[in-house]
Fold these 3 entries.
Entry 1:
Amino acid sequence: MTSTPPSQRESLTSISQRRIQAVKSKSIYVLPNAFTAAALFAAFYGIISAMNGDFLSAAIAVFFSMLFDGMDGRVARLTHTQSEFGVQMDSLADAVSFGIAQIVYEYTLKGLGKVGWAIAFVYALCALLRLARFNCNVGVVSKNYFQGLPSPAAAALVCGFVWLCVENHVPDFLVEYVPQIAAVVTLYAGLTMVSNAPFFSGKSYAVVKTIPFWVILVGAALFLLLSSNTSLSIFVLFCLYALSGYAYGFFCWWTGRPNPIQADIAKAIATMEEHKAEGAHEETPGH
């Protein structure tokens, strides 16, 4: 009977440490997914609140959902716990959290009848299309920009308007047109999600370095001016962001620069064609 040499034996201490490390590595994956679950819970609470007529809590809950959704990916990258499971879970949670226009429908669009629920459905469909396109274009489109308005920002735009209305910050001469304005805002948010407009993602600091200092000063002044009114500040902020993609696209067109989204897609298509041509060349007899 042969025995394992002492040098090849694994000590109980090393075995224990290895098992503890394995448990830690598995348990830490729960952390980013817990933020995703929290985002889904906040959105679910918002839907229930909207069904019960508490639109203020519903709108605020969606913004908390945005906060948790923005943290899960960063926590995963910080702890080196990125996984395909987490990516898919985050995408499915986003479809529910930011793709269901329950709050704005219950608050204003319901009064428009069939047109109201049709607009709410278009928004939901665009949100799903945007998330599906995002998953397909991972590795194709640069991380510096989003292709179309991201779904959390679209939900913030819509729910921000509801929050604004609930706190009676809409001018008196526009109060009677609130359902129509809500319809326009919801349609704009939905259709912009499936556009090719480049929206700054905030994932690269290289773009931040190119922002002029006066822009930062103006932004800080606007924030201080509007900080006393939270709902108005948030709505104005996301309105500016929702317009920034088209503004930057126009700037690229005006200056003759390529749209970064279209440039990335064209580069990916060209690379794919090159691979196909190389494959066909290798299969040709005589080569």
Entry 2:
Amino acid sequence: MTDIISAIKALDANAQVVVNGEPSNQAEYESQVKYISGADENGSAIYKDTQDFTWSQVSAKKAELQTEYDNKQYQRDRASAYPSIQDQLDMQYWDSVNNTTTWKDAITQVKSNNPKGSE
């Protein structure tokens, strides 16, 4: 899942920004997102009068990041379904001793149960 701050950071990794909430439209973006231009002598943030990016730019980037995240759901599903590395090494050892395919079968099953999908 992605959020506005991730989208802003994807547009500019060095952006200094404060986000209060998760804006869902331009008005909320303008009121909830403040870009920082520096700090005063007390170390308090000085906010810019304008936004570094438009709502259109940020919301488009957020949608793009969400699509990338959604397209990789199979990876997260596979990661939790694979046997532990210790178990996989044990399977590989016994496969070599017994001339079996236990490890390959287990990995194939995980991949089969969690197909890649379209990217």
Entry 3:
Amino acid sequence: MEILNQKERTKALGFFVLFFTLAVLVIILALMVNIYFPFKENNLLKQENARIQREMKFQDSFSFQLEKVKVAVDSIGIPQGGYKNDFFNEKLALSILADMYKQIPKDSLKNKIMYNNTILVYKELIDAKKQIKQLTINQKTLDSLSTINKTLKEEYDKMKVDLEVCKQLYQQE
């Protein structure tokens, strides 16, 4: 006794094995993806976290050094010391700014332009303070020369009057 629908049954068994194999492969693939990607994502997050921590450390260091520069720049041009420490404070601020520029990482920061602009602005501030100090000294010199000029003009006018008096006395004789 032979089975009448053996071809259909074999065909159905073949489809069953095919779909069963596909379902098992999909489940195994899902498990592998479920296991592999969290580790990969974890590694990527660790790298991102390390980069952010490096940037935070750099920001802390940058702001600490910026405070030192601020103190040095603020003490430039204070007349209490008679401008004696201006040269030292200016050179100190410029050397700290140069060190800060050298310490900027060239590859890992997002805001390199901000750090560079901050350094440039402080350098321009130092130059402006130096120029203000020079202009103040020039103004004092101009004021003293103006006073001397006024005094000499008064003496000149007195001499001129004396000369006129002498001329009149000489002509009368």
